[in-house]
């Protein structure tokens, strides 16, 4: 009999693993519907959908291992990172989905609110927040929308023999900024950006990727704290902000 492994659990979503099957239980059924729709559209490897009911999605495990983990050095080869870059490029070149992500104005308003919260609650020093707020401004410009994953964390990309075998967790997929996906994938692994761009291509603005490192980290900290995660862990969001100083 297979054991049940709790992969992640918080008030919005719980993911369980039973053998080679993952069960995702979501408080918002529309997120699961969006995930299933995105996986049917994208031209990159995704998990097999075993079945889907309101609030529950069952998917098969993908082969290989995650490209890495936030807060830990990635042991994946430069070739594996380049393969990930090529897969992300294929995604960004795909026909646009109907779903639209947050635009620059909405992000700017959210950033103002989160920075105010971080300072008011003594979560971070004011000078650290102010500096990263300035860095983040470079990301808040008009962009040409592409098909973005929307939550392309390093742990969501699986590789085997230097090839991408699957990209998981598509609930945030939408039209968005290509630089955002590239930044989230290299968050805390800035030293692997050149390897990623070897596969993706160099027609990107690295300064905008750096801006997204600050922007994404500033926006994520309150959510992480409120959902039981630790952004102060070595190599995680607060270290990313300190590295920008």
From TrEMBL:
<dbReference type="InterPro" id="IPR002575">
    <property type="entry name" value="Aminoglycoside_PTrfase"/>
</dbReference>
<protein>
    <submittedName>
        <fullName>Aminoglycoside phosphotransferase</fullName>
    </submittedName>
</protein>
<dbReference type="InterPro" id="IPR011009">
    <property type="entry name" value="Kinase-like_dom_sf"/>
</dbReference>
<dbReference type="GO" id="GO:0016740">
    <property type="term" value="F:transferase activity"/>
</dbReference>
<feature type="domain" description="Aminoglycoside phosphotransferase">
    <location>
        <begin position="13"/>
        <end position="201"/>
    </location>
</feature>
<dbReference type="InterPro" id="IPR051678">
    <property type="entry name" value="AGP_Transferase"/>
</dbReference>
<dbReference type="Pfam" id="PF01636">
    <property type="entry name" value="APH"/>
</dbReference>
<keyword id="KW-0808">Transferase</keyword>
């Amino acid at each position: 009999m297979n054991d049940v492994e709790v992969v992640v659990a918080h008030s919005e979503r719980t993911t369980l693993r039973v053998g080679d099957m993952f069960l995702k239980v979501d408080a918002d059924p529309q997120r699961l519907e969006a995930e299933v729709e995105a996986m049917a559209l994208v031209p990159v490897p995704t998990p097999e959908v075993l079945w889907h009911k309101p609030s529950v999605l069952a998917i098969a495990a993908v082969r290989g291992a995650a490209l890495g983990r936030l807060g830990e050095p990635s042991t994946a080869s430069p070739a594996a990172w380049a393969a990930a870059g090529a897969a992300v490029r294929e995604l960004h070149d795909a026909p646009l989905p109907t779903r639209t992500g947050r635009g620059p104005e909405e992000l700017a308003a959210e950033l103002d609110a989160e920075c105010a919260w971080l300072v008011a609650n003594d979560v971070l020093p004011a000078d650290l927040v102010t500096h990263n707020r300035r860095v983040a401004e470079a990301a808040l410009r008009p962009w040409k929308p592409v098909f973005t994953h929307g939550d392309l964390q390093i742990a969501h990309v699986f590789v085997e023999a230097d090839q991408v075998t699957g990209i998981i967790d598509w609930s945030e997929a939408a039209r968005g900024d290509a630089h955002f996906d590239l930044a989230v994938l290299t968050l805390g692994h800035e030293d692997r950006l050149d390897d990623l761009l070897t596969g993706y291509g160099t027609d990107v603005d690295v300064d905008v990727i750096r801006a997204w490192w600050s922007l994404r980290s500033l926006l994520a900290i309150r959510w992480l704290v409120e959902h039981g995660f630790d952004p102060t862990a070595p190599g995680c969001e607060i270290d990313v902000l300190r590295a920008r100083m």
